[in-house]
Amino acid sequence: xxxxAIVGACVLLAGCAGGSExxxxxxxxxxxxxxxxxxxxxPELKPFPVVAYAGMQGDDPYRPARMEPERxxxxxxxxxxxxxxxxxxxxxxxxxxxxxxxxxxxxxxxALIKANNALHQVKVGNHxxxxxxxxxxxxxxxxxxxxxxxxxxxxxxxxxxxxxxxERQEAxx
Length: 173
Description:
Layout: H1 2-17, H2 20-34, H3 64-67, E1 98-105, E2 108-115, E3 118-122, E4 127-128, E5 133-138, E6 142-150, E7 156-164
Antiparallel strand pairs: 1-2, 2-3, 4-5, 5-6, 6-7
């Protein structure tokens, strides 16, 4: 009985498939009559002016002297003492140091500087930082440094940099 149902379904399907190809072909022909392709014309190209190449007559943009900053006559008045013995805080950048306190005893004032988890006492005249910084003033809230940095022309220029007291953070925060 099962075989008879399968054979019957195949016979019905074979009968439905015939005859529909002609209708499809007629419909395609009708649609092709109404369809027309349209290609837009290309836009007109604008002529560009012709420029003569004068590369060898002008300045060479890749010459090494053009790449380097122009050297001026150096005054030479400011210059760090390279023969001086280095102090311990000169091996740390200023960004890694913190002013954590001040010690005052009579006319002597010392700042407490924390660098690399070590505490250092600094007084006026001591050197700090990697830019030849000299401590010029110590107040209750700040250490003032005079640094010597080299500019693009090779001259040494003074720069005043403050190092301010870091307030202790509360334990509740």
